[in-house]
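Hi Y.,

Following your request, here is the sequence exactly as I used it, all 86 residues.
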Amino acid sequence: MDTQQMNLALVAVLQEWDPFKIGWDLYEPEIADTVVAIRDIDDPKELAEKIKSIYEFAFDESIQMEKCLDVSRKLLIIKNDASCSI
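Below is the corresponding structure, written out as C-alpha cells. Let me know if you'd prefer a different format.
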C-alpha cells in the first residue's frame, strides 16, 4: 500500500467514525489534522489523546477517551500495514 492508498484508508475510517453523529462530510479539517498527526505518532494512547483534542477543540464537545482509543487503534493498524508493505 502506498502513501496515497494509506491516506485514503485512514480517511475512510475517520469518515465512518462520525463521533458527533453530524455526517462524515462535516469533519474535513479534523480528518486532515488527524491524518497529519498519524505520521508522527505510533502510540495508540498518544494518538487517541491527539484525536480527542482535535475534535473537541473544533466542536467544543466532549468525546469519550475509549472511543478515541478505538479509532486510533484502527488507524495505526492501517499505518503499520502500509509501512510493512512498502
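The radius of gyration is 12 Å.

Thanks again,
Q.
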